[in-house]
Write a structure and sequence with these properties.
binds 5'-O-[(R)-(carboxyoxy)(hydroxy)phosphoryl]adenosine, Nucleotidyltransferase, domain 5, single chain, 19% strand, 5-stranded mixed sheet, 11 helices, binds zinc ion, alpha/beta
Length: 354
């Protein structure tokens, strides 16, 4: 049995978790998973303020870690390694979590595992569903929108990304211009339930091009123009714009998923077709339904892990740490926090893990 503490502080969640991995079967058990969201702190500013986020992580992280240990019924000294998100993300927050992890690793004499946040999202389906490699991942969060072929731990190939806004960011910006609350995604989804998804025909940037990239900024501008033309907006206008925007992005994401699955079938013949969704936008029911349809049409299995494990959390970091620890990872205490750290870069620190 291997037990790993995971620390996540790269955005606006302060999170810690202890996950147990069975050495023989590779099966996972989440012993604790404590998440403190900073939504209230950032709400007055309509978005995450990096300096405030870093300060809130400083204020709360120690307590969150203590609760993670207590809930797991363990002392910190009993874990086998300390894992923390080392990037990409808001650098102040990443530094808080990584430095805390380094201090714990040094004090307790345990290995430090510096985890790539995107890798943690990418490996979550193995934590929740014991999924075997390879599989295709669609990461759709506030900071990222990308297709990644996951071949193994440390072995990733990015097939497409956004050339401007992330999908969650597009939801948040649309919510803001419609005067809805934060976080924007769930608010837009709620309004969309009462709206007419066909009232507006918004553009689908890039969709005619034969590539797996996304672009959402032109769509967001079209939404803003429609809203300005109608102003002042009635509740029904807001609901209709929300529903039409959501339908459009669901169609965009599903179209791209169909192409990505076709590429997967061509490049990995004979491998089961599996599409895993990660990131906060995975909570969106309309997008989930569109992806399910696309997956069914392609004969693929769609996996959407439980939403608390799709959004930022410590368990995914602990799990990524456990997967890497099992392959012998042990990062130096000099490991630097990284604001940017692409998943398919050469410095995933895993030369030995094919
Ligand atoms: O993965 P996440 O918790 O944080 C990171 O960005 O890393 O994702 C948060 C994003 C926000 O942009 C939020 O608006 C979006 O996910 N989101 C949603 C929904 N729930 C969260 N977007 C659309 N529909 C939802 N139901
Ligand atoms: Zn994330």
């Amino acid at each position: 049995m291997m037990r790993v503490l995971g620390i996540e502080t790269s955005c606006d969640e302060t999170a810690a978790s202890i996950v147990e991995r069975d050495d023989a079967s590779g099966r996972a058990t989440i012993l604790s998973n404590i998440v403190r969201s900073q939504l209230d702190e950032h709400a007055p500013y309509g978005g995450v303020v990096p300096e405030l986020a870093a300060r809130a992580h400083v204020s709360h992280l120690d307590h969150i870690i203590a609760r993670a240990a207590e809930t797991a019924g363990m002392r910190l000294g009993d874990v086998d390694a300390i894992a923390a998100t080392a990037g990409p993300g808001l650098i102040g927050g990443v530094l808080v979590g990584l430095t805390t992890a380094k201090a714990l690793a040094a004090a307790l004499g345990k290995p430090l595992i510096a985890v790539n946040h995107l890798e943690a999202h990418a490996l979550t389906a193995r934590l929740t569903d014991g999924l075997a490699f390879p599989y295709l991942m669609l990461l759709v969060s506030g900071g990222h929108s990308q297709f990644v072929l996951v071949r193994g731990v440390g072995d990733y190939e990015r097939w497409g990304t956004t050339i401007d806004d992330a999908l969650g960011e597009a939801f948040d910006k649309v919510a803001k211009l419609l005067g809805l609350g934060v976080p924007g995604g769930p608010e837009v989804e709620k309004m969309a339930l009462r709206g007419d998804p066909r009232r507006f025909n918004f553009p689908r940037p890039l969709l005619k091009e034969d590539r797996l990239d996304f672009s959402f900024s032109g769509l967001k501008t079209a939404v803003r123009l429609a809203a300005e033309q109608l102003a002042p907006l009635t509740d029904q206008d807001v609901a209709d714009i929300s529903a039409s925007f959501q339908r459009t992005v669901a169609e965009i994401v599903a179209t791209r998923a169909r192409s990505a699955l076709a590429k997967y079938a061509t490049e990995l013949p004979g491998q089961p077709l599996r599409l895993v969704v990660a990131g906060g936008v995975a909570a969106n029911q309309a997008i989930g339904a569109a992806l399910r349809e696309a997956a069914n049409a392609a004969g693929a299995t769609l996996i959407i892990p439980p939403i608390p494990l799709c959004t930022d959390n410590g368990a995914m970091v602990a799990w990524a740490g456990a997967e890497r620890l099992a392959l012998g990872a042990d990062d130096p205490l000099s490991f630097s926090a990284k604001a940017r750290w692409p998943l398919d870069s050469d410095d995933m620190g895993l030369d030995h893990a094919a």
